[in-house]
Specification:
Layout: H1 15-47, H2 59-88, E1 95-102, E2 105-110, E3 117-120, E4 142-145, E5 150-156, E6 161-165, E7 170-174, E8 180-184, E9 190-196, E10 208-214, H3 216-226
Parallel strand pairs: 1-5, 4-10
Antiparallel strand pairs: 1-2, 2-3, 5-8, 6-7, 6-9, 9-10
Subcellular location: Mitochondrion inner membrane
Domain Cytochrome oxidase subunit II transmembrane region profile: 1-91
Transmembrane segments: 27-46, 66-85
Length: 227
């Protein structure tokens, strides 16, 4: 999760988030180089009085500053399209979880099990135990197996919500009457926090999401105890 005064992204937990971080660094370097070049040219124009007559009407220069931006856009677009297709791809999910947004809590249904569903409410500040996080802890965590492809179906029963977990690179809108689909896979165990990312009413800030990623044998024990 994020820490105070953090400027960058949270540590990547899923392969998709790792790709997004690499793409961010790649694009930021291009922006940095363009900004440096423009600042250098502006500085030269302000500090020198010399004018080169051959550059006032040069076809070669105009050709370069037309082709170069096109090449830069291609260098940005190709990895972006690759990641978009990766995010939409569903490869034989081992588990399907249906997530429903309500005002103002989440409900989860493990559709591969006969009767495994529960609601997840935020724990009030007055009920928090030492070490628990304010506005982020829930009474029922969403427990999932790590290193497993999981399909997440997201919808809503009342207004627009958005199911978002930054460290997994996930943000899926929950729309009434519509079922959105996304893929989730974690490469390591742990607790991962998120929140509703769509303004959904007066208690929008009190809809936390807590994922507990555990090894497969631990998940099987948990699911057996819940049935």
């Amino acid at each position: 999760m994020a820490y105070p005064l953090q400027l960058g992204f949270q540590d990547a937990t899923s392969p998709i988030m790792e790709e997004l971080l690499h793409f961010h660094d790649h694009t930021l370097m291009i922006v940095f180089l363009i900004s440096s070049l423009v600042l250098y040219i502006i500085t030269l124009m302000l500090t020198t009085k010399l004018t080169h007559t051959s550059t006032m009407n040069a076809q070669e220069v105009e050709t370069i500053w037309t082709i170069l931006p096109a090449i830069i856009l291609i260098l940005i677009a190709l990895p972006s399209l690759r990641i978009l297709y990766m995010m939409d791809e569903i490869n034989n999910p081992s588990l399907t979880v249906k997530t429903m947004g309500h005002q103002w809590y989440w409900s989860y249904e493990y559709t591969d099990y006969e009767d495994l569903n529960f609601d997840s409410y935020m724990i009030p500040t007055s009920d928090l135990k030492p070490g628990e996080l304010r506005l982020l802890e829930v009474d029922n965590r969403m427990v999932l197996p790590m290193e497993t492809t999981i399909r997440l179906l997201v919808s809503s029963e009342d207004v627009l919500h958005s199911w978002a977990v930054p460290s997994l690179g996930l943000k899926t809108d929950a729309i009434p009457g519509r079922l959105n689909q996304t893929t989730l896979m974690s490469m390591r165990p742990g607790l991962f926090f998120g929140q509703c990312s769509e303004i959904c009413g007066s208690n929008h800030s009190f809809m936390p999401i807590v994922l507990e990623l555990v090894p497969l044998d631990k998940f099987e024990k948990w699911s057996s105890s819940m049935l």
